[in-house]
Amino acid sequence: MRGFFGARTWLAVLLLLFTMAGGSQAQRSAAETPALKAARSFRAANEAKILRFFAHLLSMPNFGGNLDDITRNAEFIAAEFEQRGASMELLRLPDTPPLIYGEIRVPGAQRTIGIYVHYDGQPPAGPDWVHGPYEPVLYTGVMGAGGEARALPRDGESVDPDWRIYARSASDDKAPIPALLSALDALRQADIPLTSNVKFLFEGEEEMGSTHLGQYIETFRDKLDVDVWLFFDGPIHQSGRPQIVFGVRGVTGLDLTVYGAVRPLHSGHYGNWAPVPGQMLASLLASMKDEQGNVTIDGFYDTVEPLGRQELDALSRLPAYDAQIAAELGLAWTEGGGATLAERLLLPSLTIKGLLSGSVGAQARNVIPDRAEAALGVRLVKGNDPQAMLDLVEAHIRDQGFHIVRQDPDLETRARHRILVKVLRGEGYPAARTDMGLPIAESIIEAVQVAAGGDALMVPALGGSLPLYLFTENLGAPALILPIANHDNNQHAANENLRIGNLWYGIDLYASLLTMRAPNAPVAGQEPPSVLRVATFNIKELSRAKIEQVDETGVGANPQLRAAAAIIQRVRPDILVLNEIDHDYGAIQEGLDFSARRFARLYLATGNDPIEYPYSWAAPNNTGILSGIDLNGDGHAATEADRGERSHGDDAFGYGVYPGQYSMAVLSRYPIAGDQARTFRKFRWVDLPGNHIPQGFYSDQALEIFRLSSKSHQDLPVQVGAQRLHLFLSHPTPTVFDRDEDHNGRRNFDEIKLWVHYIDGDETLVDDAGRGGGYDAGDPFVILGDLNARPDADESLYDGRTAISQLLEHPRIRDTGEVAVSRGAPDGKPRATTAFRGIGARIDYVLPSIDLEVLDGGVFWPAAEEDPLGRELAEAASDHRLVWIDLHLPSPSADLFPFLDRARPVLLE
Description:
Blueprint: H1 8-21, H2 23-29, H3 34-58, H4 67-83, E1 87-91, E2 99-104, E3 112-118, E4 137-139, E5 149-150, E6 164-166, H5 176-189, E7 197-203, H6 213-219, E8 228-231, E9 243-245, E10 247-259, E11 265-266, H7 267-270, H8 277-286, H9 309-317, H10 322-329, H11 341-344, E12 349-356, E13 367-368, E14 371-380, H12 386-399, E15 403-405, H13 411-416, E16 420-425, E17 432-433, H14 441-452, E18 457-459, E19 462-465, H15 469-474, E20 479-481, E21 497-499, H16 500-514, E22 532-542, H17 544-547, H18 559-571, E23 575-581, H19 585-589, H20 594-604, E24 615-617, H21 646-650, E25 663-668, E26 678-679, H22 700-705, E27 714-720, E28 723-729, H23 743-759, E29 781-786, H24 805-808, E30 844-848, E31 853-859, H25 868-877, E32 883-888
Parallel strand pairs: 3-7, 3-8, 8-20, 9-18, 10-19, 15-16, 22-23, 28-29
Antiparallel strand pairs: 1-2, 2-7, 4-5, 4-6, 6-21, 10-14, 10-16, 10-17, 11-13, 12-14, 22-32, 23-25, 24-25, 26-27, 27-28, 29-30, 31-32
Helix pairs in contact: 1-9, 3-5, 3-16, 5-16, 14-16, 18-25
């Protein structure tokens, strides 16, 4: 097994080089931020109050088996977070501790973090508590090592960070509650906004095995869509350094009972003749491990998932602290033949949790007990299936000659089998481990480093077990553990405690996390990049059903979307517009772009070359939104009963057989100012000057409400360093399904024409917020999307021009057709083709304003002989091709259109 970790020496050399190269970044990460200053200032002024609040919380009995007690805890905690502006509710299943759910929405935030804490504790029983488990007592140090009990401090009294508070759940796991509340108070007092939407999930039966958590998650999963889950549980490293943990062990177990005679026997009368259950059980247990503590059960280590390069790197970085831990614990040797504790935690373990056979000490009697019992715990790592591991243990038991029963044997069974063991299997759950190279982890690591004042330890997996798999597998979101408790906290035992300095660290940590910078986002005030790559991609029918197809690891598994993701990972645009992506319309109305974020997380942020988009945007579209009248004049006004049918789309404002079909979304590496976007979804067709509505085709009733945009027209600002860039997004109706009146061709022409009026500052335009006028920001812009218009087509010829020529010939717009070309276009087709149903048309566009310098561009459609895999990807992903251009942004102070008369906009009719 040592070969599993055999790369330590050369990895240490690589690490040294990496550390030398990245030292300046680590120093920047450790700098005190405004949020950290606010947290420390608030804590210093309120230390006594925070401690008294914590003591009150600890005085509330919180064993999950007592519904009255645990519910009182839940109601108290929810009320405290509501006072800080969170929207809270108690989710309930019958006869089960409440699951506390809450959220804080942040205007303009493009990321949602989930925070998990459990508020229940271990049962309070036990004879070794110096004080009652729910009678919190403050000590000046470690109890029994010089620390003395003292009163809780009064306001203004100084607090020593080495003091400790003793009570059940002091460290496991109520400490994050006052720390989170204090962090929120500090940020609000300093008027520092949160940078992420936050969702809280506080569980009330974790210490009882999270029996109902899976059912809760399945019942309320629509509430639980986040970008990353942060678990605040467990201890910091034994060296006292903070740690970021990327996984946990799973857990299962079994109870064994070995039988002797049907009743206890006098050891004088029957000793040396009757079998002794304790000796039989001891022999069986001894056969399961060798002298080094390695499990000898066949296949026990076979399913361990190997560590990756980054995990091996992380192991090599951990401090050599085993000797200090062994000395602290009074251990002369450790299992594993010299392997470190961190290495051993990445292997499955088998532990005898308890033994029972007769009595010892003063209670011992001269008898041969009738049975001997053992409780075995099995800790699991990534790759181990709980029940399969128990199958291996049972196979080993049979190999030792034991006959396994599931209940106490009768006389007939005893007579047939020489040695018997009753095996009762536990359920348990698997391990979970998050990829240490996950891009979203970058900002989390930075936030922890800020709070810790330096580098934190990166640990592949925690020794304990948490139900992380329910989040990583069932919800498909990554999960990290950020512990704050001291390692010597007597977790799960009598005299559980928390060092006060660790509570202070928790406040710092949470303030830093709640205000952390988005991963891959530029630092505020940073100049624009030298090259900005902008792209549009119509991924055919990018539906929610396809997005949510995942494999057993929770990674996107739809073949078409995997091909599309591989293309995006190859091109690596900084800003990407997606067409034909379906949305949950109700969620979009609430500002929750689940589909775009799930696609980014499940497909783009995975694989061999992941790419992270910390910012996303989607807004309501007209697709599938019923008008309530007969728009197409066929004598039938579609209703909800027509959902899923062609007739539904024919009477919707934009074609779609259900609301949200064929929508649009944006993924970006740079912050999106969604709260400053302008949309023209509801703008009426009749209100467009010089419109081309077909005469006599639509009824007067239809024209009163008919919207011009078949999806939406959106002006979306993106902050690229110091420069503001506007994205003009639309997806006009295709010029198909027409009659002689050419109603779709006319609509397509006018949907494109709307951009002409907008760019030229037409004062007659009114957006969905009621704001009048056209584009007046003065910043550069890019028009992106599937515009369903061909330069060489004449079916939409109005005013003597094609629809797309309105843009291609506009004096403020660059035609990128000579740059964004493909090498694999069909013979005889223009190199700028982007494909549509195989006919090789140019209908997808990235058109920048004339002040933007175009450096390069392309259409992802490789020639088969040059790039056969790329060709296969392009044809598997969509009937459209991804189009991209590289831009150089001007100085923010540059006048974009100095040669134009701003007083008199030129409307191109």
